[in-house]
Amino acid sequence: MRFLCLSNGHGEDQIAIRILQQLQSQAPNAEIAVLPLVGEGKAYRSAGFDLTGPSKAMPSGGFIYMDGKQLARDVQGGLLKLTWQQLKTSRLWGKQANASGDKSLVLAVGDIVPLLFAWLSGQPYAFIGTAKSEYYLRDEQGPLERTGGWRAKLESSSASIFLPWERWLMGRPRCKGAFPRDRLTTKILKRWPISAYDLGNPMMDGLEAKNAVPAIAQQATQEGKLKLLLMPGSRPPEAFRNWELILEAVKAIVNRERERGLIFLAAVTPGLDREALVNALSIHAWQPVDESELQAWGNWRPEEGLIFGRRQHRLLLSQHSFGDYLQGADGAIAMAGTATEQFVGLGKPAFIIPGEGPQFTPAFAEAQTRLLGPSVILVEQPSHLPEVLDRVMNDPDRLRAISENGLLRMGEPGAAARIAAQLLRSQD
Length: 428
Fold this sequence. Notes:
The chain is built from 18 helices and 15 strands. 44% of the residues lie in helices and 16% in strands. Strand 14, helix 15 (362-372) and strand 15 form a beta-alpha-beta unit. The strands form 3 sheets. The chain has an 8-stranded mixed β-sheet with strand order 10-11-12-9-8-13-14-15, sandwiched between helices. The model has no long low-confidence stretch (mean pLDDT 89). It is of the alpha/beta class. The chain is globular. It has 2 domains: 2-205 and 413-425, Rossmann fold, CATH 3.40.50; 215-410, Rossmann fold. The longest helix has 22 residues, at 79-100.
């Protein structure tokens, strides 16, 4: 059995990897090829998958849909040539699959681009629709009010967030399954002759804690102290601009909280320059704690990250404790895409601040509030966050609704295994 996986983005690569690993576990003899359509495929290589065609990082980082200037820069950087080469690679793979006589399947992860490539391969295919959700247009109560340009009007006038040509591709006989990201989207797609399956969202897989949170955070939990997750995003230089905005919000919070000590858990990707993050902390009056305090915590290992203090408050900065920090935090100050969705899926509130982009723009932040509903609280200015934080975190009914909403919109863990099993059944 042969699989070709096409994906178009960092988050999509991660989702694809989870499913491919489950395919390897459930079908050890499967032959798997991967072709990331955006970026250099570093995540695939780290997971042990070899790339089957050309890949290249573009100036936009993959966010060409958010700004026409970003698209122009990518075209100048060779986007059209790269896309043509990748299309030829996927079609060649399809011809080789026919020649081999083996059963084959193209797995498209992301949006219409990998879906179209999968169809053009000439092989059976399946679609993991990570980019779109009916929650952008409606919730369980009905349509949402929207403002915006032609794209918003086009989507709102459609019977589904997936436009007619996308539904056409999902409805072809060669499409062995469409796997939307939530139950509501699956329900809407089933209005057409589409084999849509509600098996959950692979984003919620692999978030287990590894007991890397030090004693100070564990003690804070016992004492009822608030723990806030800080997520600036993953792509420089935007992530560093986001970090500055987040630290402005943190400054406003600690200036207001003069009685109780708060714990801030900064979960940052290994791809960001830690020295730049630390320099920004120093400017905002955060200083490394002394050696005696580190020894008092007992289980803290320096390789796990750094710990800073400002009066009675503590800030933990780690590039290797993502799952632990997500699980351990009570709320998040977030300027990220996938990571925010994962945090919300754990049933916790995320406070988001619009940035300059190219990803986390005001338009992206507004769309995220529709996607994730009451679990996301949009705060226009960092200085406004202390008041909003108090209002939300001291409202038990609201926190209960946020917890229920997170599970509804993001689903339970284990989706990758369920999807892999269905993909294998489709080949019987």
